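stuck on whats below:

***
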Amino acid sequence: MFKTFDKNVDGGWMKVYRADYQDCRQCPLKPACVPKSQCRQIIRTAYDPFYRRAVERQQSRRGKRMKRLRHQTVEPVLGSLVEYYGLRKVNVRGKAGAHKVMLMAAIAFNLKKYMKFTPKSTVSQAIALKVDWSLSSEDTFLDFSVLFLN
């Protein structure tokens, strides 16, 4: 039967369930259950129903599929941000500063990824174009427009 709320060492709320003394005294399993105590006490977190619901959702078919997808997409990015981009510790104060650091690390990660996957055919097409350079500025502008606007 539920008796009271209590706080654990971390400050989280705990529910304390305690059996009645009379019930434990008459129980034939008392020597195996609580040999040195007068009654049985069970302590659970106050958020136990939510934890149980989350575990059920994770163990469902959809939850397992989402976990696999997360392991393929999100976790490697966070791992490389922590390992290679110095996000093991954020040396700024406040949420706004931490947000800026994360944003800059994400930009750096995405730029590096973008540079890795730029098509190399663009460079070869630019080299293949024949450029007719002239000394007048109007012709140069036209030649550049032929190069970059086509």
User: Anything to note?
Assistant: The chain is about 60% helix and 10% strand. Helices lie at 21-26, 30-33, 48-59, 61-84, 94-116, 121-128, 137-149. The longest strand covers residues 2-7.
